[in-house]
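Suppose a colleague, Dr. K., hands you the sequence of a protein chain of 345 amino acids and asks what its three-dimensional shape might be. Before reaching for any lab equipment, you can write down a predicted structure in token form. Begin with the sequence itself:
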Amino acid sequence: MMQLPSGIISDKIGVRRVFTVSLTMTGVTCILTGFARSFVDCLAYRFANGLAAGCIAAPGSATVMRWFQPKDRAIALSIFQLSVSVGTVIATALSVVVASTFGGWMWTFWIFGIPSLVAAVLTMLFLKERPEGSSEPSSDLESRLDYSAVLKSLRVWLLCLAGLGGGVIFIGTLTWVPTYLVKIVNLTETQAGVVSSLMLLLGSFGTPLSGYIADRIIKRRSPMVLIPLFAAGSGCILISIMKPREMCQTIFMFALVLLSSTMWWIIPSILSEWLPMNILGTASGLLSSMMSLGGVLGPFMFGVVLDLTGSFYQGWFLLGSVAILLASPMALSSFKRFMESMLKH
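The predicted structure, expressed as tokens, is then:
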């Protein structure tokens, strides 16, 4: 819900202020969760925490793109994205340790809220909006015209569709892999959780790999978004056909899907090739909103199919098909522009 609003606000008042407020509220609501005494309390604190944390992705992507030259943006953005994944894995791995060491689940929230508060202080003191001498919007009129350019751009909407498909397959797979490992591969819930975390950690390194290839080898970013999306979709469809049940084969196949599902995360860097720097927060917010929507729809659609058919394999086929279908318009548009460019030369 906060992706697009936070992007627009960051373009207006600056990323430093948005980050300082959002990180402070993220830390405070995390700590308050530890004091929850009912389901309603917990729901309210976690909802507020989500609203606060949702103000980080879009402004953060815009800041990275403003600070780095075009030839380095995919790599820089991939490191920013990697930090999110690594933080998630660390928190998941340490949460049980913290709770068992200090004698209660609430200690996890009390302690894990502290890094956000520290980050808020560091942001307030040291974060600079952009390099000195970079261009600023000259007037409110210029800003309004730029904002309309975001919504009127067909390329941006095709990119958002691809991001929607990416969110569907990544979060859908990540959500249902542990259950599949328990129900089909017969792992314990603890084993499934550990294996899933390790696969996510391995997959997270696909993002910097993709950024390096895009910036240093092929020097194009669209292929490093589209190819991984099609690979992840094909991987899920292959799983639905092969129906793996043996542990090593299953882990290998899902690890490849998750690796491919993180390689396309450099997708916001493409926006800097199409739009002015002063509205990248807004554009990143729109893109992040679509990616987040995919993350909501993916697990839900899988669950509906599982309830209706009783088959995990129908669910994997659906995730793969949706990801490929939503990435196809951008692929066709990119191919058309490539052919037109070839004909001109």
